[in-house]
Amino acid sequence: MTDSKITIAGVEYGSRLLVGTGKYKDMAETAEAIAASGTEIVTFAVRRTNLGQNADEPSLLDVISPEKYTLLPNTAACYTADDAVRTCRLARELLDGHDLVKLEVLGDEKTLFPNVVETLKAAETLINDGFKVMVYTSDDPIIAKQLAEMGCVAVMPLAAPIGSGLGIRNPHNIRMILEDATVPIIVDAGVGTASDAAIVMELGCDGVLMNTAIAAAQKPVLMASAMKKAVEAGREAFCAGRMPRKMYASASSPIDGTFF
Q1: Rounded distance, CA 137 to CA 116, Å?
Q2: Is there a contact between 109 and 100 (Cβ–Cβ < 8 Å)?
Q3: How far is CA 42 from CA 65, 110, 198, 246, 250, in A?
């Protein structure tokens, strides 16, 4: 038996896979891929998403029902703490008081690495304003610990640059973050395929968030299904405990006690 559920801000979720809504060819594909992923938490960029404020455009809420999914508005494309805070407050207004947000404050357009100084500033302001903050950050164990101690409900270190699909570039830092974790650690950014998601979970992470890995696949709906299975398998493998690595072979059927 494995601990299949993840708890975020006091709420239990059956899926440890969180997915985004960007880069799909249309709303129908978005909805189909999200359904295939089995996720219960869906994130979207507040600045790029119509939630009904533009009456003549399709609304994300038409295909992603708040009654079925937990919505996770994010601050993508924000480069200062002030912009991120304003964006979260806008989301709260548009979503009738919704307080769970994904904070990301970017450093530059080329790398999309987080601006850690601005991230810390925005996180403090948002927490004091009553938000439940899931925060995108670097894979620095010290910063991750500070964000958790500050009151963030989940810390989300990158595995590689956003949208790169490079996989887990520094598993050692992720392990160090996990050693001191007091809130869920959810890898955000860098996953490219199902094996990457499985590795994230085998490291002991509580979950993984992805968008481009699914949306940019040749068959997004099929990839969403693959990611669902990979996250589940990776978590089961972590809970099972892998065999120790050995320098030399060790026969599955030892010769001790054989009849000859």
Answers
A1: 7
A2: no
A3: 10, 25, 20, 41, 45
Q: If pLDDT is split at 50, 70 and 90, which confidence band does 104 have?
A: very high
- Using CA atoms, how far apart are residues 44 and 215, in angstroms rounded to an integer? 13
In Å, how far from its chain's centre is CA 142? 20
* pLDDT at residue 50 in the model: 81
Token output for 116? 């850690």
DSSP 23-85: T-SSHHHHHHHHHHHT-SEEEEEGGG--SSSSTTS--GGGTS-TTTSEEEEE-TT--SHHHHH
Instruction: Name the token pair of 127.
Output: 């927490």
* Residues 257/67, Cβ–Cβ less than 8 Å: no
Contact 187, 157 (CB under 8 A): yes
DSSP string, 212-224: HHHHTSSSHHHHH
- Please answer whether residues 64 and 19 qualify as being in contact, where contact means their C-beta atoms are separated by less than 8 angstroms: no
Cα–Cα distance measured from residue 145 to residue 71, given in angstroms and rounded to the nearest whole number: 25
Q: Which of 102, 145, 228, 229 is catalytic?
A: 102
Q: Taking a C-beta distance cutoff of 8 angstroms, is the pair 165, 136 a contact? A: no
User: Which pair of structure tokens corresponds to residue 84?
Assistant: 């991120």
Q: Is the model's pLDDT at 60 over the cut of 90?
A: no
Q: What is the pLDDT of residues 239-258, one digit of tens each?
A: 999 999 999 887 776 666 66
Helices (H), 45-187: 81-94, 116-128, 141-150, 171-179
Token pair of 117, please? 């100084």
- Phi (first) and psi of residue 179, to 5 degrees: -60, -35
121 catalytic? Reply is no
Measuring CA to CA, which residue among 189, 187, 167 is closest to residue 177? 187
